[in-house]
Write a structure and sequence with these properties.
This protein has 913 residues and is of the alpha+beta class. Helix content is 41%, strand content 16%. The longest helix has 29 residues. The protein is elongated.
Length: 913
């Protein structure tokens, strides 16, 4: 059964092979060589009939960097070898075949063609090493193209792949044929060919009959040139600078500052925390000369000595760091990278009660913590605490200069204050692990307690402003502690002077009531206490202008009053909780207002012994005193005609009852609303026992806010895109941190992941801002260039944030340098320093501040007039060998591309066959 089945299959295979043989048997093609030519011709006819647009619809591949260039390919087989035939074409055929301003394929640039075909073996090298094989392959293509009337130039890669050598041929549609040959000299380039004069003579030698023609004949050679210069990398001296820093440190001095002063971003706001890699590695300057006629080698020698400022066009091309384009494999160090670590610390803090539990690894209960948590040495800890608690500014602005308008949306601490600086230091303390943070926090609170116990001012904290409830709770507590320390110092000072005679200065720690001094009513006087009632008047802050006491017709005095009680957010919550428990909001809130009002009345009575209730109302609440305007100005008669408002004159008014019960007592002798000693100890207890996750929540919010505020101080020339991005960043941070701003982290770990995603957004903005700052610094006197380069990069980068990285060629955009900007760009090419002298090859001409061109590209061409019968047909796609002048043809063309180490030469010759 199996045997019959096998025979059946073999018979079917034989029939299929016979049918296939009969199908491809063509007796007009006697050899495999002819069949190979026929296959090339068939593919060529198919591509010709389709045309570029149809080929594009059928799946032609774009070459990416060369946006206008596409290719299709077909695989062929000949003599047991596989070949690949690729056709390159453009959708738009406008313009010259060689345009320095355009991105061109190497074959387009080398040979001056537009559309072309390449046929190469499908091998590891992709080139043909055997010259006879290459010639035979090119002949097959030429015959096939002639049969189908194709005018495409065809190329075959030859020699070693590193040489990128080609031979090629093109049917011109007339009696003319164009041949191509290109190769590379990679070692030992003759000195003569490193200079323009020698290159000119090389080109002329291709059509001169003898060597004597070079000196006796003048050939009208068309010449264009493009020179590319490159600035030295901006981080060129980093290794040298670092080594100098190490020498300084070994001598006992701190070399960190010396190193930082030499960095590009030394005066940028983030330089206090880290040094960023310059996002602009270097610049390329491209200088282009327009086409001109050259008749002798002497002219070329003169051109080599000419100034680069004689070039027709200048373009600048930035070279960006790999971490900007997404090719960077390492870890970019910045605020974003450290914020990620802080969020990891927050995730580890959820299940522990006290910060001390993290200090001892044995009690931490985490294998991961034991293996990875590193605590910096005591010297580092001492340096951080010194900066935090001893080297900070003496005065802190309550508003903060340069703060972003949306900064308050983030419930953290203002940048310049103590807790914000603690959070920023925590980002860089060790590797920002939970153990290192715990050690720093514990020592930080010890310093805070020392300030409290020694009555020393708390550094970096304002003592005059009200508690800002929009900030995080730790900052509120520290601010209130600073106020408590100040009040305790005042009490100590008062007790030390208790044996002295009381004076006005002794009461200066109290405040004026609202609506008194602010409205210009108080007139301070050094002689205020010396009056007829000086033995009775106490606690006077000065005379209230235009107001007299109703009973005694004496000057009214404004008293010093107690500051209203200050409360942090949790104290307000305690009050609200008490209201809920008591069920009567007035009984709690009203009592506090009553105490404040009674204190003000007592102080007013002490300052004005002859005052009546109506006097207090006229001073404290002027709206509740109604002047009788029908009696004329109040100064015409005494007492002034007026009355209390209905609210104050009704029977059983609570204000009058409080007035009657209030004793005449100056504010300095009254029981204070707040006991600074008791409140200070309560604050320290909170700070010492705060739950780790509650502390880390506030640290994350504050660190994001402080990092954003730091970056917001960067000078970047007012770039509109950057300004908008920073505005968006603040709103994004505030929105993402809302679950943490309530100081109540849900058990759902998705919150942690959301905040980690916020780090990605922050990193993108940080990168853009670093770039904007770098460009702004480099183009201070050419702001248009910095704006144009940044906007070009931003338009490419912004849509891809968080997605795939940029391709290097996408961001290498040429920007034209205008006349008034050339001096700025020239200044970027500083003279190489001693340690860079090895770069100075100086084997080529056209130097720019001691820099030779890294790349020199030249096109020589020779044209000749021909009979009109030889004109190529229109639309032949044969490149630019036909001049715009009727009857003129480009007979010789040479493209030369040279560096200080190699030379590439591509020659095309048009001949009559």
């Amino acid at each position: 059964m199996a045997s019959s089945s096998k025979k059946k299959h073999e018979k079917e295979d034989d029939i299929e092979e016979e049918e296939e043989f009969e199908h491809f048997d063509d007796f007009t093609l006697a050899s495999s060589w002819e069949r190979f030519i026929s296959e090339i011709e068939a593919v060529c006819r198919q591509w010709l009939s389709s045309g570029p647009k149809n080929l594009l619809e059928k799946g032609a591949v774009s070459l990416g960097e060369l946006k206008n260039l596409y290719k299709v390919k077909s695989e062929l087989k000949y003599a047991m070898k596989n070949y690949c035939m690729e056709y390159y074409f453009e959708i738009s055929n406008a313009g010259k075949a060689v345009d320095w301003n355009s991105s061109l394929h190497e074959l387009q640039l080398s040979f001056g063609v537009k559309e072309f075909m390449v046929i190469a073996p499908q091998s590891a090298s992709g080139v043909i090493l055997d010259s006879p094989e290459a010639s035979k392959l090119l002949s097959a293509v030429a015959i096939a193209f002639s049969n189908c009337s194709s005018l495409w130039p065809a190329f075959v890669p030859v020699h070693d792949p590193s040489r990128k050598a080609y031979i090629g041929i093109q049917n011109m549609g007339t009696v003319f044929t164009r041949r191509f040959e290109g190769d590379l000299i990679s070692t030992q380039v003759p000195v003569k060919l490193m200079h323009l004069e020698g290159l000119y003579e090389l080109f002329v030698s291709k059509f001169a009959f003898s060597s004597s023609d070079l000196s006796t004949h003048f050939f009208k050679v068309h010449f264009t040139m493009k020179l590319t210069y490159k600035t030295l990398p901006y981080d060129e001296d980093n290794e040298v600078l670092n080594s100098e820093s190490e020498i300084t440190e070994s001598g006992g001095d701190n070399g960190g500052d010396n190193r930082n002063k030499l960095q590009w971003d030394d005066d940028c706001p983030w330089s206090e925390w880290y040094t960023a890699e310059d996002p602009v590695k270097a610049f390329e300057l491209v200088a282009m000369w327009g086409e001109k006629m050259v008749e002798s080698s002497m002219e070329m020698a003169e051109l080599e000595n000419a100034s680069i400022h004689d070039a027709q066009n200048w373009f600048i091309v930035p070279e960006f760091s790999s971490y900007l384009t997404g090719d960077y494999t390492g870890n970019m160090v910045g605020f974003a990278s450290q914020l990620r670590l802080l969020i990891d610390a927050l995730a580890m803090s959820l299940d522990v009660k006290f910060m001390e539990d993290f200090v001892s690894v044995e009690t931490s209960g985490s294998d991961k913590l034991r293996s990875s948590a590193v605590i910096p040495p005591p010297t580092v800890l001492d340096r951080v605490l010194k900066d935090l608690c001893h080297d900070g500014p003496e005065l802190i602005s309550p508003e903060g200069e340069g703060r972003h308008k949306s900064s308050r949306l983030i419930k953290g601490a203002p940048l310049e204050t103590l807790f914000a600086q603690f959070c920023l230091h925590s980002l860089w303390f060790g590797d920002c692990n939970i153990r290192a943070i715990s050690v720093l926090w514990i020592e930080f609170i010890r310093e805070v307690r020392w300030c409290w116990e020694e009555s020393q001012p708390l550094p970096r904290m304002p003592t005059k402003a009200a508690i800002d409830l929009s900030t995080c709770l730790v900052h509120q507590k520290l601010q209130m502690l600073a106020i408590c320390i100040e009040k305790k110092r005042q009490q100590d000072s008062t007790s030390d002077n208790s044996s002295d005679t009381p004076s006005v200065e002794a009461n200066e720690d109290f405040s004026y009531p609202s609506g008194a001094k602010e409205e210009g009513l108080v007139k301070e006087s050094d002689s205020t206490p010396t009056s007829m009632t000086s033995g009775k008047r106490r606690g006077s802050a000065g005379v209230v202008e235009s107001l007299m006491l109703l009973k005694s017709h004496d000057n009214m005095h404004a008293p010093f009053t107690q500051d209203p009680p200050i409360m942090t957010e949790d104290m307000h919550e305690e009050r609200l909780h008490a209201v809920e428990v008591l069920g009567d909001s007035f009984s709690f809130s009203g009592q506090l207002e009553k105490d404040i009002l009674s204190s003000d009345m007592s102080a007013f009575k002490a300052a004005n012994p002859d005052a009546v209730f109506e006097d207090f109302i006229r001073w404290h609440s002027p709206k509740d005193w109604e002047d009788d305007k029908s009696c004329g100005p109040s100064g015409d008669k005494w007492p002034p005609q007026g009355k209390l408002s209905d609210r104050m004159s009704e029977s059983g008014n609570s204000w009058r009852k409080i007035w009657n019960d209030a004793p005449p007592l100056p504010a300095s002798e009254q029981k204070p609303f707040m006991d600074p000693n008791r409140e200070g100890e309560k604050i320290l207890h909170y700070l010492e026992t705060v739950r780790p996750h509650q502390l880390l929540e506030q640290m994350v919010c504050t660190a994001f806010r402080a990092a954003a505020d730091t970056l917001n101080q960067t000078s970047f020339g007012g770039l509109k895109n950057m300004t908008i991005k920073i505005d968006q960043l603040y709103f994004t941070i505030a929105s993402a941190l809302k679950p943490l701003q309530a100081n109540k982290l849900p058990g759902d770990m998705e919150i942690i992941q959301d905040v980690k995603r916020l780090c990605v957004v922050f990193e993108h903005v940080e990168k853009l801002l670093t770039l904007a700052a770098s460009l702004h610094r480099k183009f201070l006197n050419a702001p248009r260039l910095s704006q144009t380069i940044f906007n070009e990069f931003y338009n490419l980068y912004a849509p891809k944030m968080g997605k795939v990285g940029l391709v290097s060629h996408e961001v290498r955009k040429k920007q034209e340098v205008r006349g008034n900007e050339r001096d700025v760009v020239t200044g970027m090419f500083v003279q190489p320093s001693a340690n860079q002298s090895w770069r100075k090859v100086l084997s080529m001409g056209n130097l720019l501040n001691g820099h030779e061109p890294m790349l020199r590209e030249i096109v020589f061409s020779l044209r000749d007039r021909v009979d009109s019968s030889y004109y190529a047909p229109r639309g032949s796609g044969s490149g630019n060998q036909w001049s715009h002048q009727q009857g003129e043809i480009e007979t010789h063309r040479m493209y030369i591309c040279g560096t200080s180490n190699d030379l590439r030469v591509a020659l095309s010759v048009t001949s009559c066959d």
